[in-house]
Design brief:
heterodimer; A: 358 residues; mainly alpha; MetI-like fold; two-stranded antiparallel ribbon; 17 helices; 2% strand; B: 459 residues; alpha+beta; D-Maltodextrin-Binding Protein, domain 2; five-stranded mixed beta sheet; three-stranded antiparallel beta sheet; 15 strands; 47% helix; globular; Extracellular solute-binding protein (chain B)
């Protein structure tokens, strides 16, 4: 349960991160985007003050005590859920990572650093990490480009926009298992529709699911099909770009490409940045697609090239009952994801335009 | 502001710790000493297994439920597939069933972790002698550290199921399909195979090289698990087996092309590979004969055993078993129940039920492929009673072959890292067949990984 919650916590991260990235940075640029006291900071006077004075006001504006209490009461259910199922679970998994733990009997004995040492000694950790990073580098840019492309198309549709939006969002609603089954057939090297289609143009398609070089591109293809969540965020951002900017630029003689680079892209950079971070995290945690295509039953071999980090983590935990090692793996990927996200934030802040900033 | 933050932070930490304590507060239960089983029991018995049970399953379920029902015990059945994660979380939550059905190759792993009970006392209580009641190789599958941890059911021996129509068209006879004569065997495969570029449209022979990797290693005199339960994947004979498999696939367009072709088969459907003449022969467990019976008029099958390199018929034991978790609440009832499920009376009921459907269901063409119970005595009784000569000599011959080969079965051996050893072996075979690594290197890497897994569980 604990490991799984770490693996899947991307679903929890999404909404809270979006608020942190936008409102947190916009309202109080001088404070690190913190998590919990968000509701309080929104009411802080400094946020709207155009010229913050260094002189400290002796008596800061008092909160309405009752309102504050009510506010905390309202968020209590979430707070309790977060503390027990996210933070509590994470701390517990950290404890587990320093022990030899057996979930089924809830027994453990201390392991010191040996689980972390084993991470270094097990070549499969590095192989799976390499596979996962390679996949992320391949998948994230393609997802961004494809989602933006689809969103631009949808943005142009006038009549029946709702229908198209719904249709294009359907893949997101499809269970991963169904998607994987369909792609298992589509990607068959001999009889699959994709290679049959390529054969019409005289192209001999690859053995998508078997050739070690094509395993990860196959999963990228599957991911691209389900990119509609990202697409919808882009679509909302595109709709928010003020029309008059385009009109002015057009009068000045800017062509469509120039307009895209100089107006669209800066104006949607906030959601672009958000999507990059979220997709990177998701890519590094890829589990279901790889598991369903290559590890769904146990009489099937898989080459090392399809071993994703989360799949190996799952195998260690629930196939080999190696929970301590799996917890250490979870923390390693957590730290890696955090570092990558930090770098992305540092780099991103240089390019991202927030409307409320000057 | 600052104070509020501090307060919140400390509250957060405090609450998280409380949650932590709540999680870890449970006492570490579950020793490895088996419970004492008794003949008097009552209450409820929760059972997990029998997903999609057919008449063979339901008739035995009914029988066993009747047996424990006499002692005021009601059975609560969760008819879903075994799942390691579900087992673990249910055990952690204290709601583990009293009886769990799992594949025999997992048993040693769970035994080594102390999650299931040794059943020797259960057997002796009811006077069952495992080694004489079941095939010894079947009992070996569920033996760990000299104790028997599972009650076996079924023994599905694999053999080579032939498509006589494809063979005859290419001038291949049953005698050519002899794995102990590699040259003639490969020549026969080439004769039957039809390639469209490098993609096969007819495969002479599907060895199921990855799914049945263990069978191939053992048939070449290799091994996957040694006598102590340690992995033995780097046995030199294993590499020979992989090289032979590679030759077989290379004669049919290479592994990737052949595998994609096999993946596209309609295995359980109207256009299966024996109806559609897509294979000349393939390694299949005995149950596949049942899949083919509705198509008896459309197929011409036969069977030969897989031979060792010195020409002896060979097969391996595989099937499922019932285990009793260490934390089971009603082990005595569980013991009585699982022995009832696998008793001669239960199998007789299953034989009757199967016979009834064979008679009633016209699509079965009167073919009863027999039941492979895991117990030689029961197998023979049921064969004598229900497996009759039919209008389909090919089916009769194939069924007879499976019966004959059953006695030459070997166990893969049992190991606390059994699952991981099989997985590593299959990965190594895949890598070698795809040409990623030479077979010896692939096996060496697999051995290292399996040994790591073994050391973790054993150490």
């Amino acid at each position: 349960m604990l490991l799984v919650s770490v693996m899947w916590n991307r679903y929890h991260i999404w909404p809270s991160q979006s608020t942190t990235l936008t409102s947190g940075a916009a309202n109080e640029p001088d404070q690190p985007p913190g998590g919990l006291p968000m509701t309080a900071t929104l009411a802080a006077p400094s946020a709207t003050d155009p010229a913050p004075t260094p002189v400290k006001v002796k008596k800061p504006r008092k909160y309405n005590r009752n309102e504050a209490i009510a506010g905390y009461l309202f968020i209590t259910p979430w707070l309790i859920g977060f503390l027990i199922f996210t933070l509590g679970a994470m701390i517990y998994s950290l404890v587990i990572s320093f022990s030899h733990y057996q979930l089924a009997t809830n027994t453990s004995r201390p392991a010191g650093l040996s689980n972390y040492q084993a991470l270094l000694e097990d070549p499969k950790v590095l192989i799976s990490l390499g596979n996962t990073l390679f996949y992320a580098v391949l998948a994230v840019p393609l997802e961004i480009i494809f989602a933006l492309f689809l969103a631009s198309l949808l943005n142009r549709v006038g009549k029946g926009a709702g229908i198209f939006r719904t249709l294009y969002y359907l893949p997101k609603m499809t269970p991963a298992v169904a998607t994987a089954s369909v792609f298992f057939l589509l990607l068959n090297g001999n009889q699959g529709a994709i290679n049959k289609g390529l054969a019409v143009f005289g192209i001999q398609g690859p053995q998508w699911l078997l050739d070690p070089n094509w395993v990860k591109p196959s999963i990228v293809l599957m991911t691209l099909w389900g990119v509609s969540g990202t697409m919808v965020i882009f679509l909302a951002a595109l709709k928010n770009v003020p029309r008059d900017l385009y009109e002015v630029a057009e009068i000045d003689g800017a062509g469509p490409i120039r307009r895209f680079w100089s107006i669209t892209l800066p104006m949607i950079s906030g959601s672009l940045f958000f999507n990059v971070i979220v997709l990177t995290i998701a890519a590094l945690q890829t589990f279901d697609q790889a598991y369903l295509l290559f590890y769904r039953d146990q009489v099937q071999g898989a080459s090392d090239s399809s071993l994703f980090y989360a799949v190996y983590l799952f195998q260690q935990a629930f196939r080999q009952f190696n929970f301590g090692f799996a917890a250490a793996m979870a923390w390693l990927i957590f730290v890696i994801i955090m570092l990558i996200s930090l770098i992305q934030v540092k780099v991103g802040n240089r390019f991202v335009y927030y409307e409320s900033e000057r | 502001m600052k104070k509020t933050k501090q307060l919140l932070l400390s509250a957060t930490a405090g609450l998280a710790l409380v949650a932590l304590a709540a999680c870890s507060g449970d006492s570490g239960g579950g020793g490895t000493t088996g419970a004492d089983f008794a003949k008097d029991y009552k209450g409820t018995l929760s059972v997990w297994g029998f997903e999609n049970a057919d008449e063979v399953g339901t008739s035995r379920l009914d029988y066993a439920e009747g047996v424990v029902g006499k002692s005021d015990t009601t059975v609560d059945l969760d008819a879903s597939a075994f799942d390691a994660q579900k087992f673990t979380t249910r055990a952690a939550g204290g709601s583990i069933p009293d009886v769990v059905q799992m594949d025999r190759q997992f048993v040693a792993t769970y035994a080594a972790q102390g999650l299931i009970m040794p059943l020797d006392k259960c057997f002796s209580l009811y006077g069952v002698e495992p080694d004489s009641y079941w095939y010894p190789q079947v009992v070996d599958d569920v033996t760990y550290d000299d104790a028997v941890y599972g009650v076996p059911q079924f023994y599905q021996p694999p053999a080579i199921l032939l498509n006589e129509r494809v063979m005859a068209a290419a001038g291949v006879t049953d005698a050519d399909m002899d794995t102990s004569n590699p040259e003639a065997f490969l020549a026969a495969i080439s004769k039957m195979t039809k390639l469209d570029g490098s993609n096969p449209s007819v495969m002479g022979f599907d060895p199921q090289g990855v799914g049945k990797a263990g069978l191939w290693m053992l048939s070449f005199g290799g091994k996957t698990i040694d006598a102590d339960g340690k992995p033995a994947l780097d046995d030199p004979n294993n590499a020979k087996a992989i090289d032979f498999l590679k030759e077989i696939y290379d004669a049919q367009g290479g592994y990737a092309n052949a595998k994609s072709f096999v993946d596209s088969f309609d295995v359980f459907g109207d256009n299966n590979s024996y109806v559609a003449d897509q294979v000349g022969g393939a390694v299949f467990d005995q149950w596949y004969v049942n899949v083919l019976t509705p198509y008896a008029d459309q197929v011409q099958i036969g069977a030969v055993p897989l031979n060792t390199q010195d020409g002896q018929p060979f097969t391996v034991a595989s099937g499922t078993s019932f285990v009793i978790p260490t934390a089971a609440k009603n082990p005595s009832a569980a013991c009585a129940y699982v022995l009832a499920l696998t008793s001669t009376d239960a199998w007789n009921a299953a034989g009757e039920a199967r016979d009834a459907t064979t008679q009633a269901d016209e699509s079965r063409h009167g073919i009863n492929a027999g039941l492979f119970t895991g117990s030689p005595e029961n197998d023979q009784t049921l064969r004598d009673a229900y497996v009759k000569t039919t209008d389909y000599p090919g089916f009769d011959q194939a069924i007879g072959t499976y019966y004959d080969v059953a006695s030459s079965g070997q166990s893969f051996g049992s190991s606390p890292a059994g699952q991981q050893i099989q997985t590593e072996l299959q990965n190594a075979v895949t890598s070698a067949l795809l040409g990623e690594k030479p077979s010896a290197d692939a096996l060496k890497d697999a051995q290292a990984a399996a040994l790591r897994a073994y050391d973790q569980v054993a150490g």
